[in-house]
Protein backbone atom coordinates (compact mmCIF):
# COMPACT_ATOMS: atom_id res chain seq x y z
CA UNK A 1 0.00 0.00 0.00
CA UNK A 2 1.38 3.43 -0.93
CA UNK A 3 1.76 6.28 1.56
CA UNK A 4 0.83 9.91 1.13
CA UNK A 5 3.36 12.47 2.22
CA UNK A 6 1.46 15.33 3.85
CA UNK A 7 4.47 17.13 5.32
CA UNK A 8 4.61 20.71 4.13
CA UNK A 9 7.69 22.79 3.45
CA UNK A 10 7.29 26.14 5.28
CA UNK A 11 8.78 29.30 3.88
CA UNK A 12 11.13 31.45 5.97
CA UNK A 13 8.31 33.98 6.45
CA UNK A 14 5.95 31.27 7.75
CA UNK A 15 8.63 29.88 10.05
CA UNK A 16 9.21 33.31 11.58
CA UNK A 17 5.53 33.54 12.73
CA UNK A 18 5.97 37.31 13.24
CA UNK A 19 3.90 38.45 10.20
CA UNK A 20 1.00 36.20 11.23
CA UNK A 21 1.19 37.47 14.82
CA UNK A 22 1.16 41.08 13.59
CA UNK A 23 -1.90 40.42 11.43
CA UNK A 24 -3.66 38.94 14.46
CA UNK A 25 -2.68 41.89 16.66
CA UNK A 26 -3.95 44.32 14.02
CA UNK A 27 -7.40 42.70 14.11
CA UNK A 28 -7.41 42.67 17.91
CA UNK A 29 -6.44 46.37 18.08
CA UNK A 30 -9.08 47.27 15.50
CA UNK A 31 -11.82 45.74 17.67
CA UNK A 32 -10.33 47.22 20.85
CA UNK A 33 -10.34 50.75 19.40
CA UNK A 34 -13.88 50.36 18.07
CA UNK A 35 -15.13 49.13 21.44
CA UNK A 36 -13.10 51.35 23.78
CA UNK A 37 -13.21 54.68 21.95
CA UNK A 38 -16.34 54.43 19.82
CA UNK A 39 -18.44 52.20 22.11
CA UNK A 40 -19.20 49.82 19.27
CA UNK A 41 -19.92 46.43 20.85
CA UNK A 42 -21.04 43.23 19.21
CA UNK A 43 -22.13 41.81 22.54
CA UNK A 44 -24.72 43.00 25.09
CA UNK A 45 -24.59 43.04 28.89
CA UNK A 46 -27.07 40.18 29.32
CA UNK A 47 -29.20 39.80 31.43
CA UNK A 48 -29.41 43.56 32.11
CA UNK A 49 -29.66 44.19 28.36
CA UNK A 50 -31.66 41.87 26.16
CA UNK A 51 -31.61 41.57 22.42
CA UNK A 52 -34.73 41.89 20.28
CA UNK A 53 -35.08 38.67 18.37
CA UNK A 54 -36.61 38.24 14.97
CA UNK A 55 -40.37 37.94 14.87
CA UNK A 56 -39.85 34.50 13.33
CA UNK A 57 -37.87 33.25 16.34
CA UNK A 58 -39.33 30.11 17.89
CA UNK A 59 -38.85 30.04 21.66
CA UNK A 60 -40.72 28.82 24.70
CA UNK A 61 -44.21 27.43 24.13
CA UNK A 62 -47.43 28.79 25.48
CA UNK A 63 -51.11 27.96 25.14
CA UNK A 64 -53.42 30.81 24.25
CA UNK A 65 -56.53 31.39 26.34
CA UNK A 66 -59.90 33.05 25.76
CA UNK A 67 -61.32 36.01 27.68
CA UNK A 68 -62.32 33.66 30.54
CA UNK A 69 -58.76 32.33 30.80
CA UNK A 70 -59.93 28.99 29.40
CA UNK A 71 -57.38 27.37 27.13
CA UNK A 72 -58.23 27.33 23.42
CA UNK A 73 -56.97 23.76 23.21
CA UNK A 74 -59.59 21.08 22.55
CA UNK A 75 -57.23 18.15 23.14
CA UNK A 76 -57.43 16.95 19.55
CA UNK A 77 -53.95 15.39 19.77
CA UNK A 78 -52.83 16.81 16.41
CA UNK A 79 -49.79 18.50 17.95
CA UNK A 80 -48.86 15.39 19.91
CA UNK A 81 -49.20 13.27 16.77
CA UNK A 82 -47.14 15.51 14.51
CA UNK A 83 -44.37 16.24 17.03
CA UNK A 84 -41.19 14.61 15.64
CA UNK A 85 -39.53 14.63 19.05
CA UNK A 86 -42.53 12.99 20.77
CA UNK A 87 -42.28 15.48 23.57
CA UNK A 88 -45.96 16.48 23.90
CA UNK A 89 -48.13 14.39 26.22
CA UNK A 90 -51.83 15.14 26.51
CA UNK A 91 -54.54 13.56 28.63
CA UNK A 92 -58.03 14.52 27.43
CA UNK A 93 -61.44 14.60 29.04
CA UNK A 94 -64.88 16.01 28.26
CA UNK A 95 -65.29 19.71 28.95
CA UNK A 96 -68.14 20.57 31.32
CA UNK A 97 -70.91 22.39 29.47
CA UNK A 98 -70.99 25.49 31.73
CA UNK A 99 -67.28 26.04 31.16
CA UNK A 100 -67.37 25.37 27.46
CA UNK A 101 -66.24 28.37 25.39
CA UNK A 102 -67.39 26.71 22.15
CA UNK A 103 -71.01 26.09 23.14
CA UNK A 104 -70.71 22.53 21.93
CA UNK A 105 -71.61 19.72 24.25
CA UNK A 106 -68.90 17.15 24.84
CA UNK A 107 -66.11 19.37 23.54
CA UNK A 108 -62.88 17.97 24.85
CA UNK A 109 -60.33 19.66 27.07
CA UNK A 110 -56.82 18.77 28.13
CA UNK A 111 -56.71 17.50 31.69
CA UNK A 112 -52.96 17.55 31.48
CA UNK A 113 -50.74 18.93 28.75
CA UNK A 114 -47.00 18.46 29.18
CA UNK A 115 -44.17 19.48 26.89
CA UNK A 116 -40.68 18.17 27.57
CA UNK A 117 -38.55 21.12 26.47
CA UNK A 118 -35.37 19.06 26.73
CA UNK A 119 -36.58 16.86 23.88
CA UNK A 120 -38.18 19.63 21.81
CA UNK A 121 -36.29 20.76 18.70
CA UNK A 122 -38.45 23.91 18.30
CA UNK A 123 -39.50 22.98 14.78
CA UNK A 124 -42.87 24.69 15.14
CA UNK A 125 -44.86 21.76 13.69
CA UNK A 126 -47.19 21.74 16.71
CA UNK A 127 -48.02 25.40 16.12
CA UNK A 128 -48.71 24.82 12.44
CA UNK A 129 -50.86 21.75 13.05
CA UNK A 130 -53.08 23.24 15.75
CA UNK A 131 -56.60 23.91 14.38
CA UNK A 132 -57.46 26.17 17.33
CA UNK A 133 -54.35 28.38 17.28
CA UNK A 134 -53.89 27.20 20.84
CA UNK A 135 -50.28 26.11 21.04
CA UNK A 136 -47.71 28.74 20.08
CA UNK A 137 -44.00 29.24 20.22
CA UNK A 138 -43.21 32.58 21.81
CA UNK A 139 -40.24 34.89 21.44
CA UNK A 140 -39.06 33.95 24.94
CA UNK A 141 -35.59 32.45 24.77
CA UNK A 142 -34.91 32.34 28.52
CA UNK A 143 -35.37 28.64 29.13
CA UNK A 144 -32.45 27.82 31.43
CA UNK A 145 -33.46 25.57 34.35
CA UNK A 146 -31.53 24.06 37.22
CA UNK A 147 -33.45 20.77 37.36
CA UNK A 148 -34.64 18.48 34.58
CA UNK A 149 -38.24 18.43 35.84
CA UNK A 150 -38.41 22.24 35.48
CA UNK A 151 -37.99 21.78 31.73
CA UNK A 152 -41.32 19.95 31.56
CA UNK A 153 -43.93 22.62 30.95
CA UNK A 154 -47.37 21.75 32.34
CA UNK A 155 -50.73 23.23 31.41
CA UNK A 156 -50.69 25.91 34.11
CA UNK A 157 -47.28 27.16 33.05
CA UNK A 158 -48.15 27.01 29.35
CA UNK A 159 -51.28 29.11 29.95
CA UNK A 160 -49.38 31.60 32.08
CA UNK A 161 -46.36 31.98 29.83
CA UNK A 162 -47.65 34.33 27.17
CA UNK A 163 -44.74 36.75 26.93
CA UNK A 164 -44.07 36.12 23.29
CA UNK A 165 -44.60 37.89 20.03
CA UNK A 166 -47.26 40.58 20.05
CA UNK A 167 -49.55 39.02 17.50
CA UNK A 168 -49.23 35.70 19.27
CA UNK A 169 -50.41 36.94 22.65
CA UNK A 170 -53.71 38.42 21.58
CA UNK A 171 -56.59 36.93 23.52
CA UNK A 172 -58.79 34.84 21.26
CA UNK A 173 -62.42 35.94 21.33
S1 LIG B 1 -41.75 22.63 18.39
FE1 LIG B 1 -41.58 20.66 17.25
S2 LIG B 1 -40.46 19.32 18.64
FE2 LIG B 1 -41.17 21.03 19.89
S3 LIG B 1 -43.12 20.37 20.77
FE3 LIG B 1 -43.60 21.44 18.85
S4 LIG B 1 -43.67 19.83 17.27
FE4 LIG B 1 -42.61 18.98 19.06
S1 LIG C 1 -52.84 22.45 21.25
FE1 LIG C 1 -54.00 22.49 19.33
S2 LIG C 1 -53.28 20.71 18.16
FE2 LIG C 1 -52.64 20.41 20.31
S3 LIG C 1 -54.27 19.19 21.22
FE3 LIG C 1 -54.73 21.36 21.62
S4 LIG C 1 -56.08 21.98 19.94
FE4 LIG C 1 -55.09 20.06 19.30
UniProtKB/TrEMBL annotation:
Keyword Nucleotide-binding attached: no
Membership in a protein family: Belongs to the complex I 23 kDa subunit family.
Annotated residues for binding of [4Fe-4S] cluster 1: 73, 76, 79, 130
Gene name of the encoded protein: nuoI
4Fe-4S ferredoxin-type domain segment(s): 63-93, 111-140
Amino acids binding [4Fe-4S] cluster 2: 83, 120, 123, 126
Domain of life: Bacteria
Bound cofactor: record note: Binds 2 [4Fe-4S] clusters per subunit.
Identification of the protein by name: NADH-quinone oxidoreductase subunit I
EC number: 7.1.1.-
The entry's keywords: 4Fe-4S, Cell membrane, Iron, Iron-sulfur, Membrane, Metal-binding, NAD, Quinone, Repeat, Translocase, Ubiquinone
An example molecular function term from Gene Ontology annotations: quinone binding
Subcellular location(s) of the protein: Cell membrane
Amino acid sequence: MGTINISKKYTAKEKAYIPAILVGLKITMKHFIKGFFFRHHNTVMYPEVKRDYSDRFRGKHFISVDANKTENCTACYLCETICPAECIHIVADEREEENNPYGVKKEKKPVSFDIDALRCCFCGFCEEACPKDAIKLSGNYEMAVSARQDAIYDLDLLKRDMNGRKEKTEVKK
